[in-house]
TrEMBL record:
InterPro entries: Bact_solute-bd_prot1 (IPR050490), SBP (IPR006059). The keyword Signal applies. It holds the Pfam family SBP_bac_1. Residues 1-18 form the signal peptide. This is Extracellular solute-binding protein. It comes from the Bacteria.
Length: 455
């Protein structure tokens, strides 16, 4: 596995590229291709919407035969497969990084390499960000949006109130436990909160498992089976159980997803949680964190694994799309997601436009989309418009490249996460929960699901 390099230039993308409706969808001239794209941001992301409206206008001006229509539809693991099979999805779909390999294997999405390769800078893509979107033959099926690496988000104000150094977040899980206990004792707030519902309990447990040196799935011959019923995951769950029941450092509310956690964090109720630099935007723009400068993030704490989980959203084209729409979709993907991360002028222009809005966040670090030389140039172009305190992200920027990138489980990850949600919830809500029993049952459930996916 490759090591990663942190970047701040790509961060503009998460705010600027979401889609909204275009008036070009009606009354068009004959021959115009109407491209329906997923990615519309929430109404609270006003800077993103404004930036996108300009981007749509610029794109349509450069491509007069294409009209872009945005969609607010979001990925839902319970309904997505049926919609995809029925041809009831947009021409550009947005899915989490857990899904591409399954979509590729089932031939539900179109290969895009031939169209992507027409872009002169295609070969400068960071191969690490394209690998999860490719098949065994190297055919590429999508373009990523703001690939990320997980870390430990923390409230610098609560650290100070607890007598902890906000410039030095915990590097090990033993230190996380000690910090969480101290925050709870000194401030009365939850020292650490672990997500537990909407598949996010299993997702968070995957990060912990990697940090403890384990894995979630493994190949057995030509098949995939669960691998989490082993010591690393057992140690991670035992740690959570002890923090919850022995230390009483996780608060009383244990049924949370990411939005719940960030909302509580923004309100100053949580000391630490597992997240990315990008959750800064949610804390600021969606939940109005009063003192956003209290946001800090370090690399994912370790317990022998020397690894962190990578992920992000991916834009792909469904198999049902015509050749004409596929070509239009690739033009859109390159214009919206790739070119701004490659072209220094475009990156600077968007950064400047976003920085004019006091509610925007420019310069939040993320993973580089292109090679190191190009990314350094992008970062330099964006630097004058950065309006976040990069020193508060510095522990993540410096520490994350020292860790190994671990992808999410390759087969039916969302189904795995759903099963493990119940395991995490049991550990956090039942003092007498037996970790071994829970993992044994979860292993059997996941293996059944993995077997069913092969039929």
């Amino acid at each position: 596995m490759k090591k990663i390099t942190a970047s701040l230039g790509v961060a503009i993308l998460a705010t600027a590229v979401a889609a909204c409706g275009s008036s070009a969808g009606s009354g068009q001239e004959s021959g115009t291709v109407t491209l329906r794209v997923q990615g519309m941001p929430p109404a609270t992301d006003k800077p993103g919407l404004a930036a996108f409206e300009k981007m749509v206008a610029d794109f349509e001006k450069q491509n007069p035969g294409i009209a872009v229509e945005g969609s607010s539809a979001a990925y839902d693991p319970l309904t997505f497969s049926a919609k995809l099979a029925g041809g009831k999805v947009e021409d550009v779909i947005k899915v989490p990084l857990t899904e591409p390999q399954g979509l590729i294997a089932r031939k539900q999405v179109k290969p895009l390499t031939a169209e992507l390769a027409k872009w002169p800078h295609y070969k400068e893509f960071n191969p690490q960000v394209l690998r999860p979107l490719s098949d065994s033959g190297g055919e590429v099926y999508g373009v990523p949006q703001s690939p990320f690496a997980m870390g430990l988000v923390y409230n610098r104000e609560l650290f100070e109130k607890a007598g902890l150094d906000p410039g030095k977040p915990p590097a090990t899980w033993e230190e996380v436990r000690a910090h969480a206990k101290r925050i709870a004792e000194k401030t009365g707030k939850a020292g650490f909160v672990h997500e537990s519902k909407n598949n996010q309990g299993g997702w968070q447990l995957t990060k912990l498992t990697y940090a403890f040196g384990g894995e979630m799935e493994k190949q057995s011959g030509d098949t995939w089976v669960a691998a989490f019923n082993a010591e690393p995951t057992r140690q991670a769950l035992t740690l959570l159980k002890e923090m919850r029941w022995t230390d009483d450092s996780m608060g009383d509310n244990q049924l949370n997803d990411q939005n719940d956690v960030i909302k509580r964090f923004a309100a100053g109720e949580i000391g630490m949680y597992l997240g990315t630099p990008g959750t800064y935007r949610l804390a600021k723009m969606t939940y109005g964190m009063p003192n956003i400068d209290a946001f800090g993030i370090g690399p994912l704490p370790q317990a022998g694994g020397n690894a962190t989980l990578t992920g992000g959203d991916v834009y792909m084209v469904p198999k049902s799309a015509s050749a004409e729409k596929t070509a239009a979709a690739v033009k859109w993907l390159l214009f919206a997601y790739a070119q701004p991360q490659y072209d220094t002028g475009a990156a600077a222009e968007r950064a400047k436009a976003l920085a004019a809005d006091p509610n925007a966040a420019v310069g939040v670090p993320t993973l580089p989309m292109f090679n190191e030389v190009r990314q350094a140039q992008i970062d330099e172009a964006v630097k004058p418009y950065v309006n976040v305190k990069l020193e508060h992200f510095q522990p993540w920027i410096e520490g994350t490249p020292k860790l190994q990138l671990r992808a999410e489980p390759p087969v039916r990850a969302q189904a795995v996460y759903a099963v493990l949600d119940s395991v995490v919830q049991a550990v956090l809500t039942d003092r007498d929960a037996d970790v071994n029993t829970l993992l044994g049952k979860a292993e059997a459930d996941v293996n059944a699901k993995l077997a069913a996916s092969r039929q």
